[in-house]
Amino acid sequence: MAGRNWSEADVRVRPGRRNSRPRTKDRPKHEDAVVGMVIGVDRGRWSVLLDGRRITAMRARELSRTPVVVGDRVALVGDTSGDAGTLARIVRVEERTSVLRRTADDTDPYERVIVANADQLVMVTALANPEPRTGLIDRCLVAAYDAGLDPLLALTKADLVDPAAFLANYAALDVPYTVTSAQELSDDQREELIASSGRMPRRLDGLDELRERLAGRVSVLVGHSGVGKSTLVNALVPDAARTTGHVNDVTGRGRHTSTSAVALELPGGGWVIDTPGIRSFGLAHVDPTTIVEHFPDLAPGTVNCPRGCTHDEPDCALDTFVAEGGAGESGQQRLESLRRLLRSRDVPDKDEHMERR
Ligand SMILES: Nc1nc2c(ncn2[C@@H]2O[C@H](COP(=O)(O)OP(=O)(O)OP(=O)(O)O)[C@@H](O)[C@H]2O)c(=O)[nH]1
Ligand SMILES: [Zn+2]
Hints:
The protein is an alpha/beta fold. The protein has helices at 8-12, 134-147, 164-167, 187-197, 207-214, 229-236, 240-244, 288-292, 318-323, 331-344, and strands at residues 34-42, 45-50, 53-59, 73-78, 88-93, 99-102, 112-116, 120-126, 150-156, 177-179, 181-182, 204-205, 218-222, 262-265, 271-274. It has ten helices and 15 strands. Residues 156-157, 159-160, 180-182, 200, 202, 223, 225-231, 254 line the site of guanosine-5'-triphosphate. GTP binds at residues 156-159, 223-231.
């Protein structure tokens, strides 16, 4: 009905409507609202970036308990000056292009959206200290595929161990990766860096390639404690430590002021979303079909599968398909990788929950 002009006649065919002013529910809501991006959440207050201003906002009552998470585009009304002490109101959450959920656990029985509108899931994994575990990465991959995010494996501490052996686990999966390693510092350099930044310094090799992968995109960083995630974030975003209160000045150890995600703008454009305390994803709802779609070489082989095939059962047609060469030379390895991912849905990494702080 776009462009239609209402006439007196239209009004008259609706008997009983005395007031010519449309009822509130018929009026377009909040025409004057402006849209910003949620960059942080803390105790019922949202931090929203709008035209370079950081605005503190509350959720309008009409939204009730609608989740509003980091990465969400939200419509704001009220005082959007961003001046100290002001509070805007979030009146609408714009449609999301992606959602990343964390799993239900002992402290919270619901799967919850943790980040919206991200493009990429960066799995920060140390090659040693702590030892890398494929289980968690597999679960992250499934979460990424399910949420429609591109996965990126960010391997750290390559100064301690050569990445080749670990990467062999992912060769058949074709997961893109970057490798960083800390440079040795002389005592003088260390002194100087501690004096200038107030935290344990790490100069990283390999950072440029990671920067390129992150440029202009919205990337969620996940990883176990100690893998070097804050080291990466601090290297990528110069004033991250100040923004997040992430790193303890004295010890250099992580000390998180909150367990919710926070979005940090990259100097060259794009965002990294740090997720302290989030190490597990809700995968119970993930349909095997969604995962198989990420294996375009295997997907055609599923046409002969029984209805509702889990693709990890004796009747699955993929075995024959692969045996007959349908997926090429790497078919068998690819099928094994696919099944490893499918199984990772049911087996939470044993440390995932314990490590939540
Ligand atoms: N050898 C080596 N050590 C590194 C590297 N990157 C980080 N580290 C060290 O690993 C330790 C953990 O790094 P963090 O950046 O605090 O790790 P995190 O993942 O943020 O851990 P939490 O703060 O506990 O969540 C620190 O002592 C870092 O200096 C690296 O490339 N090589
Ligand atoms: Zn099957």
